[in-house]
Structures are given as structure tokens and as C-alpha cells.
Specification:
homodimer, about 425 residues, 5-stranded parallel β-sheet, 19 strands
């Protein structure tokens, strides 16, 4: 059997439609299972998950524990976000009334400021007093979030608490991924920081996350009786790699070749008529920098100097030391008349899927990373929520597709929850 | 000072705009206070609250603990309802997976069936297996909820549990206000019934509810520094009244006269140029039957036989024994080009305001009960949620008005929560 995405038979077990149908049929089992899992591993305060829908498989490719982009969500779903924030804060911090948001140190990123203003409003409308204060004093940081009257202050320590002026918060909400390291100011404070700063990119590894994810995908696949590969990309940590001196080229080439073979076997098993590819990326780090797609193992050895430099340094100018190779997942989704490729990004507050958008890139193709800076990045907010499937409609209809996205996304969220559990156990030791 | 509704000054302390402004300014204090209150008195599983907005005061006039009308809510807010159901069930019954809905015994009310179908879908999409079974075997009950494939079964007892066929639920959701009494079938069962059937209309008294409400309104008014009268109608229980034999006419006439005087004093204090009126209604019971508006105390003695009969028997053909007189609250809201009078009804799941609609009645006027059966009843779903105010907009703008409705409505919900607390204490004794 050899089929292309568009001709995949309705009953084909490697199709997202099959996945949607199976997930819809087993909704109450799935939700019961999730409830038990969240009980064992509480979800992080918030997260955004990048998914890729290849038409024949659907998988998370990135899990961000300090999400920006709240401004890109459909404002119609703000009440859903607010209700989720109210629920989680009330459950975890029943006496809290003041929240301090600690943002990224970006002083000129207007998109980030829009996110920050939105996050401020969401927490405020959840019924809290809110302030914004950066960890460090940033030279050219504006006094107010642009286009708002929300001041940006500088955090200070006051009696073992992080404060902004005389505002002593009950909890600190971190919207900074700590690529530059664990902040000095956090070392002495006693109150709660959400999510745990130990999960910042200075120490977190994608390979740890995807390790948990693989376990979860296997459990979930077993429960709904599917091949876990349909929701789980192969991955492998490559250990320390220095792209600049070419010393690791042979080793990584071999690993890529092995993974391409594994993917090809799966493609053949399901009759998928596509070229396998892998994605090579920094094991820690972020912002879509230092990510390349490779269809032939030898491509990795022919990277030019510019490409190598890009791989060697990601956000915060850290040299990449640990590298991850991951099965590339095509994106089968396109939007608009010009059929620009798009990938869904799902947002969570606690374990609730509260919304999402499509990341659309005009200049990239179906096997490339779409999380790239540049003017062509277009968020397209979901028109339906991720929690309200409609069994009367086709499994592929928007409410059902978004529900499926919310389910797969929650599997990645659960992986993050297990990461947090592990970090907490370590801290306790 | 003498003003009409439309000319009420912006700073006038008897205006809903003043109330909206005060509530917006004190949002975080109010929400913090609510969080503490819900901790002490958990909200009922669900409720709908009828409000009346007179322009100069805003108050709840009825609190329904077994609400129908879920079909009248804006479907755009279904995700908000679902998320709230998930949150409360998960918190209170972490192991539950099967829910049995016990509906009213209505076999021909198509509006009620639409509510039932909607409630079924909301619980199902929250991730539960759901069945519907009536308490009693009803002669002409259809096999399925009309226009759906949802069977209506008859509940039976099986090993001290209420079951529907071989479906043994983890919890029972009661959507029947028990006007006809505490069902025999509930007497022996051991599992949880939500809301507690002890709160059914066979025993619940509106005067108890409004007693709790008055305490709460006083606490709340003190916190935000307003006159509690702005949110709390006067009321008085009249004890046992038999409208048919006229024996209580003198006593009730005197009580009405006293209350009309009290209201007139308040109207004079605030310069409100309106005729005071009182509403006389059954202290227990429901469905807007047995409710009359009276502007002159002697009107009560000149009721004709038909009117007396209407007062003497409410839903379930119970003779009215206990009667409540309550300050009438004008409704200042009109909808449509024809300016039909309307009153807001707010829906809650747990302590969350999840939506609402306007009850519109073409044939009634601003001082009449709008909860009356008939073809002219028109629900008009809210276009905005009740939890997302917008400080940049006018206090009277829809998001802010609906937020205020959600706050006042939650005060009535808290009164219901205290009723439940009291019932639980009694049961424990």
C-alpha cells in the first residue's frame, strides 16, 4: 500500500482522522485517566505546546514552560483563561491576593510587551493585585509597558521576599525562561515562584522532557490501542557537541542515519510516501534558534560556517553543548488561499487547554521549523475551544480536531508535570 | 432631589452605575473576599439566579438550586461551563467517572427536554459517562429525549445505589426541584446526590435564603462602603396563609402596608420618583406561579377568586401554607426596538458565573414577575461573559455590567451555600 497524505484511507491506522475518531470514542476513558494522572503529577501553572500534524501522525515538538504569546489567543476565550487561573490559584494558594509577574529582560520586543500586558490583564481580572518587575535593572527598559499604564519596575529583595517597591507579593509568576541562568535574586527568597525556576532553560533538557513524553505516549497508546509512534516522534540525545570544531560530525552523522532508517521503516509499514527527515536542535534552549532539518545524514557534515555558528549559539549566547536529534514531523496543515504551512500551538493554564493558535510561516515548507523570528510569522487564533468536541460532526471537524490537539498537548503537559515532580524530589533530597 | 431612572446623576449613590463603578474599583478586594467565603461555605454544584436591575438598585429575587434553561445560554460559552464542571467534579469527586442525571418528571415540556439534552452534553463533554433516569415511572414519558438519541430510563435501587439499568453511577445530579416531596428512592441510597435533595422545594423556604442573603449583603456592603439596600430588597415571611378562606387578609394587609412605607422612606431618601410595590409569593415553590405584585396594601383583600386560587396552589398542586412578601424591584432593562422588559438570569457552576441570559416578556411591565409561562417568554443569551470586566470601558458597558451581575449573583449563591451548610449541620445532628 502506498498512499500520500491526501489519499490516506479513512480507516488507515496512520491517519490523524483515525486518531481523532479513536480519541472521540474513548473520551470518557481518556478524561478519567487524565484526572488520575494530574492527581499524581500536578500540571505546571502554565505552558504552551507546539504540535505538528503530519496527516499521518500528530505529535508535540516543543513544550514551553514560560510561555509568551498570550496576546495571540482568541480574546473570546479570555473568560476560559481567567476561570482556569482563578481555579488553580485558589486551589494552590487560597490566601494569595498579590501576584508579581517577572518578565523576560527584552526591552524592545513589542510582541513580547503585548504578551506581558495581556498576561497582566488576565491575572488582574482573575481577581488579584498585579505588578510587573524585571529581575535585573535593564538600561533601556521603558517605564511602562508600551501602550499601557502598567509600570515595569525592578525587583528587589526585602526581608527574604521579592518585592516591587513596597508591593510584597504572595507569589511570583515567572514569565522568563532563565536561559541566562538561575537568578541571584531567587537564591535567598522564601516564597513561591511559579513555575519552579529550576525548570528554566539554564538547566532543563528537552531530552528529559521527551523521555517522560515517550513513557506517557506508550501508556496512552496502550489505553486507546494505537501504535505510540502515531503520537511520539523518535528522539535521541547526542551528548556534548561542538559544531564549530567538527569533532563530533562523524558520531552525529551515524546517529542521524540510524534514526532516518528507523523512520523509513515506520513509513514503509504504513505506506507513507514521504522522505523521512530529522531535526537537530539544542537540548536546552529556545526561540527556535539553533534548529535544522536534515533529510540525509551527510548533510550535517556539509553545514557551512554560518549554519554551524547558528547551531553553536542559541538564545542568551550560550554555546550549545548538548544536542538532541528528533524525528521530523511534517506539517500537513495549511491556511489561507496561498496554502502557507502552519502548526498549532496549544496554551494551558494548569491542566486545562484554554486556547491556541496556528503559527503560520509564509516562507517555510512542510518539513521546516516554523518557530523562526521574522516578519512572516503570523499567529491565527483558534475559532473553537479545545475542550468541546462535537460527536455529531466529522472527526476532522474543527471542534473535534482541536479537542484531539488538546489531548495530545496534555500528554506533553503531563511530561512537563513529571519533570516538575522529579525536580521537586531532587530539591527535597 | 427628585430624579427619574434615566436622569439619575452619575455620582448618585442610588444608581447601578455607581454600584458598577464601586465594584470595578474594588475588584481584587471583592474576589479575595469571595475566595475566603467559598472556602468556608462551598457553593452548590449549580444554580441560576434571577436578578432585577431597577437602575437605582440591583438585587437577586430568586435562587434556583435545580436550574433548567441551560439550553438558553450562549453556546459560545459552553467551554466555560465544561471547564467549571471538570474543576468542581475533579476536586470533590476525584474518582468519579459515571454521572446519573435525575430530571423533572415533565413528559411534554419541550423546553425542559432541550435543557436536559444540553445538560447531558455538557457533563459528557466534561469527560464523564452520563445517563438520564427519572425517579418515577411516568406514563407518557418518551423513550428518548426528543430530537436526540439519549435514552430516558427509570431509576431503580440496586445494592443501596440508584442505578439506570446496569449503569451504577458514582454520583447523582439532581435536576428536579422535588416540589412533590423527598423521593422514597433517595431514602435508602448511600451515594452522593448533588445538590443535596434536602434543599428541594418540599422543604426549602425562600425566607431562609433571603435571611442568609441579607446577612451577606450587609457584610459585602460594609466592605465596599455602600448602603446594603442598594443590593438587598426588604422581605418578610408572613407565616401560614390561606388565600382561599380570607382569614389572613387583615394580617397580610398590615404587613404589606408596613413594607410599602419602609420602601417609600428609602425612595424619598434617594429621591426616587416611583411607586413602591411589594411582591407576594409562596415561601416555598417555584416556576413563577403564585406570585403577585401589589402597589396598595388593600389590593390584597380585593383579589378575585381566580387570583386567590392561583396564589393558593403552586407547582405540584401544593396548597400554599407559607407566604413571603418582598420589596418589589423594578426592572429598568428593556431589549429590542419595542422596549420589552427584561431581567437577567445568571448561571453558576460551583462558584463560577458561567453565563446568563435576559428573560424577556412582551406582555408584562416593569413591576411584574417575568418568570411566567407562555409563548412570549424569550431568552436572550448574554454576548459577553460575567467574569471579564474591562476597566477601559464605561462602568455601564456590557462586560462591566455583566461582571456586576456576576458579583451580585454570587452573593445570592453564597446565601445558598450557607443554606447547604446549615442543612448539612442539621443532618449531622
Amino acid at each position: 500500500m502506498s498512499v500520500t497524505d491526501s489519499s490516506l484511507s479513512k480507516t488507515c491506522k496512520a491517519s490523524v482522522e483515525f486518531l481523532e475518531k479513536t480519541i472521540l470514542e474513548k473520551q470518557s476513558n481518556i478524561e478519567t485517566w487524565f484526572r488520575h494522572e494530574w492527581h499524581k503529577s500536578p500540571a505546571p501553572f502554565y505552558a504552551s505546546i507546539d504540535l505538528r500534524n503530519a496527516g499521518f501522525k500528530l505529535a508535540p515538538v516543543d513544550t514551553n514552560l514560560f510561555p509568551a504569546g498570550f496576546n495571540n489567543l482568541n480574546p473570546d476565550f479570555d473568560p476560559l483563561v481567567i476561570q482556569a487561573i482563578q481555579t488553580v490559584l485558589e486551589r494552590r494558594f487560597p490566601d494569595a491576593r498579590k501576584v508579581l509577574i517577572v518578565p523576560e529582560n527584552h526591552s524592545r520586543n513589542l510582541f513580547y510587551f503585548k504578551n506581558l500586558a495581556k498576561l497582566y490583564c488576565l491575572i488582574k481580572n482573575s481577581g488579584y493585585e498585579v505588578k510587573v518587575a524585571t529581575i535585573d535593572k535593564i538600561e533601556d527598559m521603558p517605564e511602562f509597558i508600551p501602550e499601557t499604564e502598567i509600570p515595569i519596575e525592578v525587583a528587589r529583595i526585602c526581608e527574604s521576599r521579592i518585592c516591587a517597591g513596597d508591593f510584597s507579593p504572595c507569589l511570583v509568576l515567572l514569565n522568563n525562561d532563565l536561559s541566562s541562568g538561575f537568578p541571584e535574586i531567587f537564591k535567598t527568597v522564601k516564597h513561591t515562584i511559579l513555575p519552579p525556576p529550576q525548570l528554566g532553560w539554564y538547566s532543563r533538557l528537552k531530552s528529559t522532557h521527551f523521555g517522560h513524553y515517550s513513557d506517557i505516549a506508550a501508556e496512552f497508546a496502550d489505553m486507546i490501542d494505537i501504535d505510540p509512534w502515531l503520537i511520539d516522534p523518535f528522539f535521541e540525545g547526542c551528548g556534548e557537541i561542538n559544531f564549530m570544531d567538527r569533532s563530533s560530525d562523524d558520531a552525529i552523522e551515524e546517529q542521524i542515519a540510524t534514526m532516518l532508517n528507523k523512520i523509513q521503516k515506520k513509513y514503509s509499514e504504513y505506506g507513507i510516501n514521504k522522505d523521512p527527515f530529522v531535526v537537530v536542535k539544542a537540548d536546552s534552549g529556545t526561540y527556535g534558534m539553533g534548529v535544522i532539518s536534515v533529510k540525509k545524514a551527510e548533510d550535517i557534515t556539509t553545514l557551512n560556517r554560518k549554519q554551524r555558528k547558528k547551531m553553536a549559539f542559541s538564545k542568551g549566547n550560550n554555546a550549545i553543548t548538548n544536542v538532541l536529534i528528533q524525528e521530523g514531523v511534517y506539517t500537513n496543515e495549511t491556511v489561507g488561499g496561498d496554502l502557507h504551512v502552519a502548526e498549532p500551538v496549544i496554551y494551558h493554564i494548569d491542566h486545562h487547554a484554554v486556547g491556541g493558535f496556528y503559527r503560520v510561516h509564509k516562507d517555510r515548507s512542510e518539513h521546516e521549523n516554523l518557530n523562526a523570528p521574522g516578519a512572516h510569522f503570523e499567529p491565527l487564533p483558534f475559532t473553537k475551544s479545545c475542550i468541546n468536541p462535537d460527536c455529531k460532526k466529522h472527526p476532522n471537524a474543527k471542534p473535534n480536531r482541536f479537542y484531539t490537539y488538546g489531548v495530545i498537548s496534555r500528554l506533553a503537559l503531563l511530561a512537563a508535570a513529571r519533570e516538575i515532580n522529579a525536580v521537586k524530589k531532587e530539591s527535597a533530597i
